[in-house]
Amino acid sequence: MGLGGGIVAGFVALTYAYAYLAMHPARKHLTSSPENLGFDFEDISFRTFDGLLLKGWLIPTTIPKPVGIIILCHGYTTNRQEMLPYAVWLRAAGFTTLSFDFRSMGESEGNMSSVGYHETEDLRAAVDYLASTPELSGLPIGVLGISLGGAVAIMTAARDSRICAVVADAPYASLHDAIGDRSRLFLGPLGPAGALMVRWWTRKWLPVAHRKVAPHEEIAAIAPRAVMLIQGTWDLTAPWRKSRAMYEKAGEPKSLWLLPRSLHARCLRDQPEEYARRVIAFFSDNLNSGV
Prior knowledge:
With 291 residues, the protein is an alpha/beta fold. It is built from 10 helices and 8 strands.
């Protein structure tokens, strides 16, 4: 094999490794819990349509009568611990929160991530859990998702009217686009070729075309329930122009908040007080109206 053939073989091997690791991410274990914050909470678990046991936390609000329940959906390759900072101010504002680990992440069962396709059923299983719990079943449900969690929140809400309002922070527009954006970020000028190869490899594990895992094609179905999109303008993983395009497709009521110079899923860190204020106001205004 000549030099050129070796380079090509190396590139193919690199894209296979990237695709495999994308679908089989290293599991990040929990290092903190609501107990570290001094919160009352309950360890919960529920099963998905395909029999996987998902683990989560239910954190009650501090007020006697909850305003509603917010399901918190973490980002790609992380776990429910990522959502603890969001639970802090939602809890204080009167919302009970449920956070859980997506399949193959955190403490949940599974050995493969579908990066959004099956994860919609993970979120639906969380909604089923709330519906089957008598003391919680009458409360309106909202979802706040980050990155992968934001994409999953949009797609699930579009299919399940039990979700009354959605906040999606840095969601991808489609899995096809997400692979392309990440490939350009990590491979530079070789990004388009890399994305082509990664898409080809991942079809070995994903039972559907990447273009069909597409929040931007489903977001309009959320209306007349409310959706809020949050995006940093320096986000290279999920470019802000794609969130603006999703916003244009969404029906009313809808909201778009673009944060100058914020990177991927860093908006809460960059403007914590304003972020909390806007999200609390959004859920307070729209949660009950979505029932």
